[in-house]
């Protein structure tokens, strides 16, 4: 696409949108004087000032030919300029179309050992883009790549001890990178800053390119060799059509059927299929470049952003640039990306065999039958009611087929990617969403995925298990299996020892044996951990066995943990394991018990609710678990009802599903409000505050305790109409900051978004503590992973940072922030004179919970 833009001369007109920034000089005199170290006394300093001032004036007056003799005379005197002075003269010569002199000066920079910065490259690239000189552009881009690689080479030498000998870093990766970069390029910045095209420009350019494709690409003249119809020879390969979707027509670029037939025949003749993916969609074979600011980090050459935002969501980007310091946030992201991974080959080989043999539904490997269900056929002379019923059935089956096909293709991508990285170390660069929740950038191979995908990944650098590591591996197996997940740690340890024969059978004969691992909640991870345990036990020295398995410590309904801590809610704290106990509390079972008690009252009292009688014996932990888990993150009644309906399906007649799920969802919401009264009040205060701010014409924003600025990107829908060469387009945008905030969305999203920002802060703080101690650490939101030998130390950091986080007056600080930024603003409504009232006055009161007890709670994270 870039090549087409350059050759079609579309790029030059857009060149002003591309710029490269250099490090700002400390003072104006620094820019004028150049290198002060060569100025031995005041007179030489004055001479330098005089010469450079003259050069600067002549260049400003576009008299480059007069400036050059002064420039050369000064250089012959043994003085050396900073790149910016060279850039001014190079740019002056190019403006006068004297490319030869500009290039001679550019090469003299390198001869004088003055490293060109990206301003130099930007000037030359812009000139070559205007002239269409592709060879010079390629040459300059290669030079830019070499600069980055020189810095990266030194960076890798600094951090490689981390992977070879588990040596702890004395500085953070960010500090190491910045120090090396400044040593190499003290006069400028290495990273390019590219302004994105406005969305409208992107659509117009894209439309022009599509028009070129539609009007130029034709089927080959020898199409007859592919057994196509004679009349198809020479026809256009693609066509622009319209598809009717409800009441609107949508533009569509379709492939000519004859081209599709040609492609199918060629594909079937090919020896093997291959995937072509963008470099940002696959893991890295080298450690990622550390994040140094909001736009520079992760991949070495592919542009990335530290925060995932909507295309036109500029508000968050502006806040990031204005932030006081993002160093703690960036350092935690860099540490999460620093340690390598490897593929578990035994699990991979087994999964590939099952996939190639047609799949296994019980192991979440889709079979062909799952996405090839036949559709019911319409019958002649049927009444309208039957026709509607058949239509609904066909729609449901089509949807199910499409979803299952998508699942199979996703798995194919994952297995193919794992096979590609077999026997290799690879790295997963991370970034975050606008709330601070962290995700790997490559989508197809990461630990934030399904049970099978997680079982395929191991730490790339192993560590000896140690005595505690061996115990934690056994506890981990019992937790993954689920049979003893709510038992004490000692009971889980004893359980694993008691079934060691079943574990050995699963590890040795996973498909032919008794299949104990298949009964687990997460069978693939259970199998992978079982194989690791048996390898350790059979090694003869389990404590010195080099283990690569990740051991997980999961928060107990982590969102409610944060709410209980903010509200100092004693009763709620007991339900989510904030206080010490002999066994973990079972919140989901407790909610199910309370819901069933309410159901019994409805079934036997004067109410005589029929649906309550039908649900006799059907209410248990699994039915309510997902709704309880997600209600704190903003699940609506509709979403909660669908979750419960999915669990009830098959246990009661379908005709009662809607009524039963609606009834139970209401009871779940009611029960949670009773159990977590203080949490509900905090949620209501957050929602009410966000609504006030939105009615005053502002999106809700705050700064997390770790220093990340957050703004909710929910605005009223904007519609922009543009006319391209192909068709008219409507650009819909819900994140346009020029449009008013959406009060409904701002209100409903505030409680879950705020608690998400807190759980991400807690994770980042824990990561920073692990970095100080040199403990390999990764996380899936509120699930923290480490080597078995490091779990006890990681647990200590996790609890200490949670207590430290909530020892701050989080809600009071938030109320003060709202008060300072939005207090007293007028509502932008039809009512005159109404103002945003005080946020502090409505702040919910706190209970009596002592946060320090969390440090002794075994099952806070377990």
From TrEMBL:
Cross-referenced Gene3D superfamilies: 1.10.287.280, 5' to 3' exonuclease, C-terminal subdomain, DNA-directed RNA polymerase, N-terminal domain, Tetratricopeptide repeat domain
Limits of the DNA-directed RNA polymerase N-terminal domain: 52-338
Cite the source lineage: Eukaryota, Metazoa, Porifera, Demospongiae, Heteroscleromorpha
State the Gene Ontology terms under molecular function: DNA-directed RNA polymerase activity; mitochondrial promoter sequence-specific DNA binding
Top-level taxon of the source organism: Eukaryota
What name does this protein carry?
DNA-directed RNA polymerase, mitochondrial
Q: Which GO terms describe its cellular component?
A: mitochondrial DNA-directed RNA polymerase complex
**Entry's family note:** Belongs to the phage and mitochondrial RNA polymerase family.
Compartments (UniProt record): Mitochondrion
Name the keywords, alphabetized: DNA-directed RNA polymerase, Mitochondrion, Nucleotidyltransferase, Transcription, Transferase, Transit peptide
Which BP terms from GO are recorded?
mitochondrial transcription
Q: What is the uppermost EC class here? A: transferase
Per its record, the protein catalyses:
RNA(n) + a ribonucleoside 5'-triphosphate = RNA(n+1) + diphosphate
Family matches, as SMART domains: RPOL_N (SM01311)
Q: What is its EC number?
A: 2.7.7.6
**One Pfam family named in its UniProt record:** RNA_pol
């Amino acid at each position: 696409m870039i090549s087409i833009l350059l050759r079609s001369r579309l790029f030059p007109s857009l060149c002003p949108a591309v710029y490269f920034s250099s490090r700002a000089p400390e003072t104006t005199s620094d820019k004028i004087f150049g290198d002060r170290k060569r100025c031995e006394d005041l007179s030489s300093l004055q001479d330098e000032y005089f010469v450079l001032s003259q050069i600067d004036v002549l260049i400003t007056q576009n008299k480059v030919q007069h400036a050059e003799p002064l420039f050369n005379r000064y250089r012959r005197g043994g003085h050396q300029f900073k790149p910016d002075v060279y850039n001014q003269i190079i740019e002056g010569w190019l403006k006068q179309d004297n490319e030869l002199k500009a290039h001679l000066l550019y090469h003299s920079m390198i001869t004088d050992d003055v490293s060109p910065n990206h301003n130099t490259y930007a000037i030359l690239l812009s000139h070559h883009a205007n002239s269409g000189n592709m060879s010079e552009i390629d040459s300059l881009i290669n030079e830019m790549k070499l600069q980055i690689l020189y810095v990266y080479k030194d960076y890798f030498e600094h951090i490689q001890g981390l992977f070879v000998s588990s040596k702890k870093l004395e500085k953070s990766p960010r500090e190491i990178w910045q120090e090396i970069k400044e040593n190499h390029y003290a006069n400028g910045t290495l990273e390019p800053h590219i302004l994105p095209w406005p969305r409208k420009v992107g659509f117009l350019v894209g439309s022009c390119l599509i028009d070129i494709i539609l009007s130029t690409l034709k089927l080959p003249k020898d199409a007859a060799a592919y057994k196509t119809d004679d009349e198809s020879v020479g026809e256009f390969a693609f066509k622009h059509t319209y598809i009717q979707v409800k009441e609107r027509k949508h533009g569509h670029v379709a492939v000519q059927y004859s081209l599709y037939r040609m492609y199918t025949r060629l594909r079937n003749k090919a020896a093997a299929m291959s995937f072509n993916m963008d470099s940002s969609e696959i893991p890295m074979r080298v450690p990622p470049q550390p994040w140094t600011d909001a736009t520079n980090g992760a991949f070495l050459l592919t542009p990335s952003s530290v925060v995932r935002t909507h295309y036109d969501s500029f508000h968050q980007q502006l806040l990031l640039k204005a932030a006081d310091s993002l160093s703690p946030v960036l350092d935690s992201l860099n540490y999460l990306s620093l340690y390598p991974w490897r593929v578990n080959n035994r699990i991979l080989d087994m999964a590939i065999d099952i996939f190639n043999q047609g799949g296994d539904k019980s192991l979440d490997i889709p079979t062909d039958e799952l996405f090839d269900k036949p559709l019911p056929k319409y019958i002649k002379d049927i009444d309208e009611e039957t026709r509607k019923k058949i239509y609904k059935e066909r729609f449901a089956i089509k949807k199910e087929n499409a979803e299952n096909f998508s699942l199979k293709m996703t798995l194919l991508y994952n297995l193919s990617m794992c096979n590609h990285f077999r026997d290799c170390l690879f790295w997963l660069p991370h970034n975050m969403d606008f709330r601070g929740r962290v995700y790997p950038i490559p989508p197809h191979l990461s630990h934030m995925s399904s049970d099978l995908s997680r079982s395929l990944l191991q730490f790339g650098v192993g560590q000896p298990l140690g005595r505690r590591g061996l115990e934690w591996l056994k506890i981990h197996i019992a937790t993954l299996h689920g049979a003893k997940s709510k038992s004490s740690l000692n009971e889980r340890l004893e359980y694993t020892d008691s079934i060691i024969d079943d574990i050995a059978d699963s590890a040795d004969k996973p498909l032919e044996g008794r299949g104990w691992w298949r009964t687990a909640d997460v069978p693939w991870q259970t199998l992978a951990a079982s194989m690791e345990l048996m390898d350790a036990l059979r090694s003869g020295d389990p404590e010195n066995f080099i283990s690569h398995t990740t051991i997980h410590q999961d928060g107990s309904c982590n969102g409610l943990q944060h709410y209980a801590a903010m509200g100092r809610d004693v009763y709620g704290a007991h339900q989510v394991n904030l206080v010490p106990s002999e066994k973990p509390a079972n919140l989901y079972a407790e909610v199910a018990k309370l819901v069933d008690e309410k159901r019994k009252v409805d079934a036997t009292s004067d109410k005589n609710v029929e649906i309550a009688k039908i649900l006799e014996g059907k209410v248990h932990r699994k039915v309510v678990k997902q709704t309880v888990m997600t209600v704190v993150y903003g699940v609506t009644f509709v979403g909660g009802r669908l979750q419960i309906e999915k669990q009830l399906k098959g246990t009661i007649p379908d005709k009662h599903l809607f009524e039963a799920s609606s009834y139970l969802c209401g009871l779940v919401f009611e029960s949670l409000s009773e159990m977590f009264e203080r949490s509900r009040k905090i949620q209501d205060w957050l929602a009410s505050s966000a609504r006030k701010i939105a009615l005053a014409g502002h999106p809700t924003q705050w700064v997390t305790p770790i220093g990340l600025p957050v703004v909710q990107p929910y605005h009223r829908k904007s519609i922009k109409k543009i006319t391209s060469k192909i068709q008219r387009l409507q650009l819909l945008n819900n994140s346009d900051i020029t449009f008013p905030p959406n009060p409904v969305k701002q209100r409903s999203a505030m409680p879950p978004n705020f608690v998400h920002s807190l759980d991400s802060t807690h994770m980042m703080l824990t990561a920073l503590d692990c970095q100080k101690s040199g403990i390999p650490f990764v996380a899936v939101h509120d699930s923290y992973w480490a080597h078995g030998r490091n779990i006890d130390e990681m647990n200590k950091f996790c609890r200490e940072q949670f207590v430290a986080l909530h020892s701050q007056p989080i809600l009071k600080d938030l109320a003060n922030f709202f008060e300072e930024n939005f207090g007293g603003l007028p509502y932008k409504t039809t009512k005159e004179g109404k103002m945003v009232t005080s946020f502090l006055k409505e702040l919910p009161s706190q209970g009596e919970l002592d946060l320090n007890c969390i440090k002794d709670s075994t099952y806070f994270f377990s």
